[in-house]
Amino acid sequence: MSQKVTPSMVSLKSLPADYRFDGENSSRASVGLRNGVSQAGDSEDSPYSGHGVSLEEQSLTDDVDPGAATMPLPQSDERRWSDTSAYARKKVLQSWVQLPNGNWELGKILSTSGEESVISLPEGKVIKVISETLVPANPDILDGVDDLMQLSYLNEPSVLYNLNYRYNQDMIYTKAGPVLVAVNPFKEVPLYGNRYIEAYRKKSNESPHVYAIADTAIREMIRDEVNQSIIISGESGAGKTETAKIAMQYLAALGGGSGIEYEILKTNPILEAFGNAKTLRNDNSSRFGKLIEIHFSESGKISGAQVQTFLLEKSRVVQCAEGERSYHIFYQLCAGASPGLREKLNLTSAHEFKYLGQSNCYSINGVDDAERFHSVKEALDIVHVSKEDQESVFAMLAAVLWLGNVSFTVIDNENHVEPVADESLSTVAKLIGCNINELKLSLSKRNMRVGKDTIVQKLTLPQAIDARDALAKSVYSCLFDWLVEQINKSLAVGKRRTGRSISILDIYGFESFDKNSFEQFCINYANERLQQHFNRHLFKLEQEEYIQDGIDWTRVDFEDNQDCLSLFEKKPLGLLSLLDEESTFPNGTDLTLANKLKQHLHSNSCFRGDREKLFTVVHYAGEVTYDTTGFLEKNRDLLHLDSIQLLSSCSCHLPQAFASSMLIQSEKPVVGPLYKAGGADSQRLSVATKFKGQLFQLMQRLGNTTPHFIRCIKPNNVQSPGLYEQGLVLQQLRCCGVLEVVRISRSGFPTRVSHQKFARRYGFLLVENIADKDPLSVSVAILHQFNILPEMYQVGYTKLFFRTGQIGVLEDTRNRTLHGILRVQSSFRGYQARCHLKELKMGISILQSFVRGDKVRKEFAELRRRHRAAATIQSQVKSKFARKQYKGITDASVLIQSAIRGWLVRRCSGDLRWLKSVGTKTNESGEVLVKASVLSDLQRRVLKSEAALREKEEENDILQQRLQQYENRWSEYETKMKSMEEIWQKQMRSLQSSLSIAKKSLAVEDSARNSDASVNASDATDWDSSSNQFKSQASNGGGGRQQQQPMSAGLSVIGRLAEEFEQRAQVFGDDAKFLVEVKSGQVEANLNPDRELRRLKQMFETWKKDYGGRLRETKMILSKLGSEESSGSMEKVKRKWWGRRNSTRY
Questions:
Q1: What is the biggest distance separating any 2 CA atoms in the chain, rounded to whole angstroms?
Q2: What span, in angstroms and rounded, lies between the C-alpha atoms of 131 and 133?
Q3: What is the pLDDT of residues 67-126, one digit of tens each?
Q4: At the N or C end, where does the chain have fewer CB atoms within 10 A?
Q5: For residues 256 and 303, is the Cβ–Cβ distance under 8 A?
Q6: Which residues contact 776 (CB under 8 A, 6 or more apart)?
Q7: Is 841 marked as binding a ligand?
């Protein structure tokens, strides 16, 4: 192997000059680096960097250009890219002629004499031009090619003509090497939808398209495990926003399935409504930068996304140029709000609001704002913004509009003002939820802190208007940031993050108007930074890599914009530094800023000072003159602390969140001088410094990705379909460096692979063994085996460099080989699987037969045992029934026989005489002869009598059983009744004894009272007078009638208790006797005697308890009466009586 490889390697012209090869021992090779360049390792710039591609991912790597690059932006003169020569002019019959108006026209060369040529134009006009100015045209067969690299003559008119040719046929996408050029058609074109997505996914359509760029990005992300980025650039109105949405649609279609992709697509209506506006050049101009980072899972499915925004144009909220509009959402809210929402927000038409009416433009042709508003509400629902939050968002929008209608009135001679307390002011206070007096104070006064004191300063009319506008701009800006935050929460990746992502950058394009302010200054600075990223990726890094790897390369010149970036970013004498410095001075003005810039930057080649407040910057895309009016105020972008405190005191949660966010931002540390205005304590980053930091972070993020560039071209300024302005398109092509891109791609080596990775990826394709070879030897052997021409590649110190399309041959061979290997492996594995399956089936069949046989044998044995048991049981039962039946028949027969015989005997004996008298003859044996009819009749009678006898016997048995049951139950009832009667008798006797004892006690007491009365007359008199009061209520009104004594009243009470006892005893006794008679059957009644007995017992117990209680109450009353009657000597009698009473208690 070494002897074959060595001569071929020596003869390679593409090897570096310092390459040294050991001819005999080919196991090692050394590559020397010129100019002291150290040995480099594996470069990660290779499209095959990272891990090898698995067989499952192989389908995603087919036909993918590994060297996808990007697009440049320098201006170039015509001669650099003319590709003309004297020979070409002689051989080419058609050439491009530049007319006096600057347009190019295709003409036919009629004759050439000296330095002049005669050209015939398509209109039939013949002109004479200098031969050096002619530019050769491509043959007709190349008209409308989809890649500018295929043009034989690469020059400006040929590129313009090719783009125009395709544009007229609605083929708006054209490749320029690794860059996709998209021309805005300003109309709907049939190039999108599921059918096209499926075609590009299956690679059945290879024409240039945004789908193809997105497909390349997602495939390279999976294959190389490197994050990707799609950078969309172009002027305002070139179609960047729509292109970004188309790319997102394709990524959502390929990576969809989890449902999150639908939410990602629905972010577009929200961000467009709140961040886009109509300008003079574009009906849907993005007034902010947007980076959408879409995250993917390991399987290539979308797992989440994150949105980052840059530099929202806040000034558009409060001022618009003539013919332009503010942000779309204001007009959509006024047009599409429901009646209930309109009444709640006190909305009127857009003409009534000053912020919207100052431009005299309220609608866009072909756009229904009301319908768009409903789409925005639907999108808010999809990204999980609640109905309450949506109403709060609309309230903030209405508050901003009503703030513009707040007017002021002068209150003194110093032009101090205060807000007019009209509908506008009250509506703003209601919508944001603040006190109207606090709102008036924040718009008309300012608290300034001087040392430890606070001074209240009244505002003049310009200051009050600025404070009002600043509040409106801050509320809208915070609302926009809050919405982006809610979207990011809805699209959050969380634990699903895998590190794989595709970022889509849609940022404002280069802008140059008649009057350019601070917004254009920042926008063009961002484009300068993006242009440098483009240049570094496509020009600088590529050419530097060629030189470092020792590649024979003709350097391509391009315009580097590093000088312009230095003008912006240099410290301390850069545009941004000087702007921040001037913003720190309270007395700084826009004029002093302009003078300072002219003083310090007049020597810079990219800067030119103009009159008054004007200065000019030479950008990569051309010169732009800026007016410093408003620069300082917009750069400071200060909202006074009074306004922040007003928002924090609001009852609505959104203004409170805005105030909290602004306070957090103000607390961030700032490098350099700080600006304090109006006594505000907050220290804030300037807008320029903040934007610069965001750009550096953006560039750092994009630098870690593989970029894919899409350059959008605007064909005309009037947004008319079918109109193609050569001058405008040519200017944009020069700005984006399309021709330089094609030149480098055509003359360079876009595909590069390190030796190790190339050998590892394609080494298995070699016929001979390569186990002991170094990567470089293996790589060269692969190139020779596949007959790749030396001019189509070069071997560097660390990498192999290929021209466009050369790696495809190896990839196709590799894919075919891998597919063949897979087919062989699948066939062999299928054979093995089938054999194994056959063995398994045989083993399973044998095992099943044994198991089933054992199971059947067990079931048969059990069935036989059960059959024998059933037969035995049946035989026993049948024999029992047979014996019983036989016995019954035998008994019946004997009975019948006995009856018949008795009857016969009785009849024969009774009729013997009669038989003799009638001369009945007897037989020889002496037997009596009986008639057959008589015998049968006797037999029937006997059978009937036997049946009747059996029925009577059965009825007799049943009656005897019932009689026995009744006797048993009657004995139980008698026992229970006897026990109850005994209990009742005991209770009655106890009650009677109690009554008798009570009567005796009362009688003894009466006798004692009478005896004591005769001894103590005076005491008795007192006793009678007090005791007679007991029956005072029983008297009938007679004045002279004497009252009964208390003890006689007690006797009457005891008598009534005794009567009640006798009555109750009689009633309970009668009821119990009646129930016993019912139960014994002596009396018939429709009731349950057992239940009634239980109820009667309960009633008796209740009455007994009640009766005992009344007895105790009577005792207490009598004792009380006795205590009142007795006094002196009567106490002894009372104690004696009660002593006897107690001694006789039972």
A1: 189
A2: 5
A3: 333 333 333 343 333 444 444 444 447 889 988 888 889 888 888 887 888 888 888 888
A4: C
A5: no
A6: 29, 31, 755, 759, 795
A7: no
